[in-house]
Amino acid sequence: MCVLAVASTAAPQEQSPPNAEPAVLVGAGDIADCRSLDGALATAKLLDAIPGTVFTTGDNAYPNGTAQQFAECYGPTWGRHLARTRPSVGNHDYHTTNAADYFAYFGAAAGEPGKGYYSYDLGAWHVIVLNSNCDKVGCEPGSPQERWLREDLASRKTACSLAYWHHPRFTSGVHGDAVAMTALWQALYEGGVELAIGGHDHDYERFAPQTAAGLLDRARGVRQFVAGTGGKKLRRFKATRPNSEVRSNASPGVLKLVLRPRSYDWAFVPIAGGTPVDSGTDTCH
After folding, report:
1. Domain of residue 135, residue span
2. How many domains is the chain built from?
3. Is residue 66 assigned to a domain?
4. pLDDT (tens digit, 9 = 90+) per residue, 3-52?
5. 8 Å CB contact between 101 and 66
6. Residue 25 to residues 19, 29, 227, 247, Cα–Cα distance (Å)
7. Residue 14 covered by a domain
């Protein structure tokens, strides 16, 4: 079913070249279920036809994120794009001790083993990957991850930035809001970040720009997408959260972002036979 005034702490930004080439970031989470690979095979075919950097929003190999499941289930599907993938870690990836097999499979692309948070530049944008398994790494104010995030935001040199991780701060899906991510969202908000992407709930959802408390803020808020549509069986929605603008659990698919020096385009790309449910464009803060 488809249904369509805090002061910034960000460092001064360098001006992105107005003629810089757009960069493509494409992906989803909740991907390769070893009990049925049909969904992951179908979304991997989408990636075959879309150039750019691939992201994942966690729960990459079900049910337990073991080395065997990565090799036999993620590998033949999304794994054929491993060389251009920048992943994030989900709770199912932690079904192995310390997500060791996740870190071993993705190697240096997953950042420092044991942390699961890192950043990189893509075109004219800065991209931040967070670890929302807060019981494993800490997400509260003053935690190592929160301090790292604020330092990373203060030192970045791009005008536009985004972040992605597994458990969405806001969601109308069955799992509910990840309140533990509030402090990290506050850091993103104060740092002027444009976009956040999560997974965990097996659906697609887009929110209007919000504060960490979930208040609408179209001037400075962070726009969040939920893209838990990478291949795992889709789920129903619960009560619609405030500021939810688009929701769909009709088809697996991927979220495609075209990142320009001062703006971005988004589109949910469904698998073959699916119906597009969302697309749009906006400017950076």
Report:
1. 21-283
2. 1
3. yes
4. 332 333 344 344 445 567 899 999 999 999 999 999 999 999 999 999 99
5. yes
6. 19, 13, 13, 21
7. no
Q: And the tokens for 222? A: 């962070």
Q: What is the DSSP string of the chain?
A: -EE--PPP-PPPPPPPPTTPPPEEEEEESS-EETTB-HHHHHHHHHHHT--SEEEE-S--EETT--HHHIIIIITTTGGGGGGGEE----TGGGGSGGGHHHHHHHGGGG-STTT--EEEEETTEEEEE----HHHH--STTSHHHHHHHHHHHH---SEEEEE-SS-SS-SBTT---GGGHHHHHHHHHTT--EEEE-SSSSEEEE--B-TTS-B-TTTPBEEEEE--SSSPP--B-SPPTTEEEEE-S--EEEEEEE-SSEEEEEEEEPTT-----EEEEE--
The CATH number for 213's domain is 3.60.21.10
Residue type, 125: W
Q: Structure tokens of 153? A: 């935001």
How does residue 244 score in pLDDT terms, banded at 50, 70 and 90?
very high
Rounded to 5°, the CA angle 95-230-73 comes to: 55
Q: Is the pLDDT of residue 253 over 50?
A: yes
Q: Is the pLDDT of residue 131 over 80?
A: yes
